[in-house]
Specification:
2 copies of one chain form a homodimer. Chain A has helices spanning about 35-40, 40-45, 50-60, 70-95, 100-105, 110-140, 150-165, 175-195, 220-230, 240, 250-280, 290-300, 305-335, 350-370, 375-405, 410-465, 490-505, 515-530, 545-555, 555-560, 585-595, and strands at about 480-485, 505-515, 535-540, 565-575, 600-610. In chain A, helix 4 crosses helix 16 and helix 8 packs across helix 13. By secondary structure, chain A is mostly helical. Chain A has 21 helices and 5 strands. Chain A has a 5-stranded parallel beta sheet, sandwiched between helices.
Chain lengths: ~600, ~600
């Protein structure tokens, strides 16, 4: 047996082994269509905040400027087209999953991959926070009575998602199919009905803001800002390329098809909504989302409106949920490269998974509280991180094509190069136009994370050197050893512990700490009567401490004469958890002290009770 | 070497081994005089609240009733005399330390000793809470501006004492000597100057409350209530008898002398203060303590007043502090008798000590908050617990004398019997008169604790039976064993771990979990190149979990063929604590899962880094 059959189970065995972690085991299962609910919710749901982000910027120049959403959206859809084509090439080049981190790592130095890692980390946090805030805004649009409780609602949804993920509830692509279908179909219904309606007939009540009708010249800077904000609608289109192995074979082909499908859906939605915005003279308000206003203007305020609005909330919450699944995967990649603690490599072990879930939730909660659940306040932060990732992935691809020089490498490099330049320009626009309104947070967070990653990598390098990784270590050889068994009484447990000790040790000594002289004498007498063939040493410290006398004993010359000393602490293992309070605590204290303050090895041997 | 010289050090070795725990090592050192600051602060400081508690009761019957404090105090001092004589006999009979628990255990059944234990536990909590609240009241009397912050001040002092005790700051009897001397001397100065002053000359401003001057007949019930409340001045006189071994030899003689000294000091103080109360027409107010009023009336509001008042606060805080040292001693006695988890037997090991400190602080804080730092609200609770202990100790002593029938046993039994009857009557008076004003809390807490103690004792009995305590267990014998060493790479650490494993095991297998096929192959190649003579099994689970595949591996028939399986987890032990986050976490997860879900024994072998 050199290899046990690989297990297909997940979880650390806290009882329920399935759950969210089970996603791994259903891998290689999704089709092109299922790729939309499974991997594209973040992208699709961003139509709920992208157009609104644009309008919010344009509104600063007066109601007349709102119509500029059309040319700006066209520019964004053009960028979308380039990015989709670009990411189809990423899928082809990195069929094992080519997130911006993987691409940057393969084509650039460690510093650039740390930049990619940091921006991805920021993105995961922001996806959660932005999606939840936008979901709450959709809910409040339908139920204005909730408008004062946005923050509480957002934190409540976050808490719910966190709990779901801590419990490890299964989240399968199929369960996502229905709300995704409702949302997409609903949005198309809105667009088509809106286009069919006669110009501005029914929406008199929905021209919400009374903006100054000044014929302001809409400056290029404002248009750039609107473009930058609108680009938040493109977040998430990289997700498919990150997770190509999730598709059924031929996985790259299917993934490329999903990417194209996503591009078509997202592009037509954005264009359609932009046209309706202008047609219905819709502007940003604080009480209703733009999407909600468009929906009401198109299909009225009847049941269809409520179905679409609730589907929006659900889809946004599911998009947030996806991040909870994604962060552990990223952390595990980073652990592999020494950028985060190695323990994150075990992402399927429940404690690790839980740790990641809690960290993500705390960051997202802090962000939501900081901006009072206002989506638009987070858009600049969001776009900076995402577009940094886009730029890194594209420019990495350029290097890839130039290096590999495959068929038509210049066309491919040209396409990715165009994408890289456009997204790089967009990133700079974000940073410049949004620096004071939140961008600085990202400008601090990303370098901060990069520094942390670098320090961690350096630590592991130093340790690796000290361990002599890569060199041939000395041959192992057995040493003379001594096993010290702690005993408190003569019992079946003592007998079992001595058996284990005799199996392990060349020499075995039993050791007991007794504070009460009478008990010490009684133990000695009982031991001599039993006569198990093992010497018993009794310590009688003056103070009621077990740790100090045992440490002193282990430092005595006779004990130190042995090269290897193992302290075997046998302990009662009760059936009921609450009985742990009554048992083992002194063993835990002793084990911890010995581990910290002595050179000996410690093994705690449980003796399992059946009747307690 | 059957016994290493007993260590005189305390602490689990968190670095600083001295500290409060060090009290133990300076035992057998104190003289009769030092016994006052070391063991009698609780008793002496109770003059700060005892007389006030009486006046508060009497005030209900009008200003005229206040003068009844004199006869009631005489009754209390008579009881004090009996208790002091009685406790001198306790010291004689139980020179190893005869707290009410020890006496009850020696002379009554387990139920009665559990009653004694429960009432002692309640006393420790109340000593802390009452002393701190009274100390704050003294402070507020001098600085009325603080009057709205009593609760915050009380919690602040409690937090400070808790931190001191968690840090293990040394508290020696000698350090207590000065404030104790100032307090006692100051109180006598107050009494003497007050008696020398002409009748009511200077205290016009201090007759604080305008009580109705009705010539109410002061009923016997009111007098009993006043007596019961005033008995709170007697709390703490048992402390000397609890801790006889703390005295320098001849310890019993010295302890008896201290007890007598305490009786004289406390009795004269109480009588003197009662006379001054009447002379200066002092009654309870909400803004100033009775002791503060008496002090001002006697010595004026100059610097002497402030010195005495601050000494009162300090002495009360020190009295609270004494409880923090006393509870671990009690817990250790109870652990010896299976009434509380055995871990409390290790009271000198720092984690145990800290646990006791925190528990005591939390209970005291809850109580202080519940009564809003009002001393008088806690007096009934306090007296019930203390007098239950008095009664148990006295009646235990009666049984002791009757049983041993020594010289003049009938006189001794008579004295203790009188004390027992008087304190029993007092206890009943408290319970009846104070039941609705807080006494019910104690009436629930004490039986509740007794039940808990009984359950714990029962658990240990059941476990002892299952372990076969008292029977001769089977002979230990070595078994065929297997040591599984987890490895992640070929390194010096791996070599060291294999050496340890070869020392311990008959058969040794190395086991590695690898998620990345390339790394798995590299490890295999490196292993074969090294060829350490130990087989390497590599697990390649599909999911990124280490726990599940290792569990499955250990359940395979080949492994289960060995009777004893030890999993040796070698782990890097960094020098800096913060680097623990980067290291060992996966080992901890694996160790915990194996301990919980398999039958194997686990030993974590640290490899200590020097350069990280």
């Amino acid at each position: 047996m050199s290899q046990v059959a690989p297990t297909n189970r997940v979880g650390d065995g806290d009882g329920d082994d399935g759950g969210a972690l089970g996603r791994d085991s259903s891998r290689s299962q999704i089709t092109s269509i299922e790729g939309i609910p499974a991997l594209s919710l973040d992208a699709i749901s961003s139509v709920a905040y992208g157009p609104e982000a644009m309008l919010t910027v344009l509104a600063a120049a007066g109601a007349g400027a709102l119509a500029r959403i059309e040319p700006v959206t066209i520019a964004i859809v053009a960028l979308l087209a380039i990015l989709v084509l670009s990411y189809r090439q990423v899928i082809e080049a990195y069929p094992d999953g080519g997130g911006s981190y993987a691409v940057a790592k393969a084509n650039f130095g460690p510093r650039t991959s740390r930049l990619a890692a940091a921006s991805l980390f920021v993105d995961y946090v922001l996806t959660v926070a932005v999606s939840i805030a936008a979901g709450v805004a959709a809910l409040v649009s339908a139920f204005p009575a909730l408008s004062h409780d946005s923050l509480v609602l957002a934190l409540g949804i976050l808490a719910f998602l966190t709990l779901l993920n801590l419990r490890g509830i299964a989240t399968s692509a199929r369960a996502f199919l229905l709300p995704t279908a409702v949302f997409i179909a609903g949005t198309y219904v809105v667009i088509v009905s809106g286009l069919l309606r006669s110009h501005g007939a029914t929406n008199a009540g929905y021209h919400a803001v009374a903006l100054p009708k000044v014929a302001a010249t809409v400056g290029i800077f404002l248009l750039l800002k609107a473009f930058a904000s609108g680009c938040s609608a493109l977040t998430g289109i990289e997700a498919i390329a990150n997770d190509v192995p999730a598709f059924r074979a031929p996985s790259a082909r299917r993934a490329k098809r999903t990417e194209a499908l996503l591009g078509v859906i997202l592009g037509t939605m954005l264009l359609g909504l932009a046209v309706l915005t202008v047609r219905f003279h819709i502007g940003p308000t604080s009480s209703q989302t733009v999407l909600s206003q468009i929906t009401r203007a198109s299909v009225g305020s009847g049941p269809i409106y409520y179905v679409i609005d609730l589907a929006t909330t659900v889809i946004l919450a599911l998009a947030a949920n996806t991040s909870f699944g994604g962060l552990p995967v990223l952390a595990s990649l980073l652990a592999h490269d020494d950028l985060v603690p190695h323990v994150f490599g075990l992402r399927a072990d429940r404690p690790v998974y839980r740790y990641g879930v809690v960290v993500l939730a705390l960051f997202a909660a802090a962000l939501i509280v900081a901006v009072n659940a206002n989506t638009n306040a987070m858009i600049p932060l969001y776009a900076i991180g995402v577009f940094t990732g886009f730029t890194l992935a594209q420019s990495g691809l350029v290097r890839h094509w130039v290096r590999t020089r495959g068929k038509r490498w210049w066309a491919r490099a040209g396409l990715n190069g165009t994408g890289a330049v456009m997204t790089a320009v967009a990133t700079v626009i974000f940073l410049v136009t949004k620096f004071t309104s939140g961008g600085w947070v990202v400008a601090i967070a990303i370098p901060g994370l990069m520094y942390l990653f670098a320090r961690i990598a350096r630590y592991y390098r130093v340790v690796g050197k000290e361990l002599g990784l890569g060199t041939v270590p000395p041959m192992p050889a057995p040493e003379s050893n001594l096993v010290v068994v702690t005993v408190t009484a003569v019992s079946r447990m003592t007998s079992a512990a001595l058996s284990t000790a005799l199996s392990l040790g060349d020499t075995v000594v039993a050791l007991s700490v007794q504070f009460d002289p009478a008990r010490a004498d009684a133990l000695r007498a009982e031991w001599d009567r039993w006569d198990p063939g093992v010497r018993l040493d009794i310590l009688r410290p003056e103070t009621r401490s077990i740790a100090a006398p045992v440490l002193a004993y282990l430092r005595s010359p006779e004990i130190r004469a042995h090269r290897e000393v193992l302290v075997l602490i046998s302990e009662v293992e009760p059936r009921k958890i609450r009985h742990q309070l009554l048992q083992n605590q002194r063993d835990i204290i002793l084990a911890n002290v010995l581990r910290r303050r002595s050179d000996v090895n410690v093994v705690r041997v449980p003796f399992r009770l059946t009747n307690d």
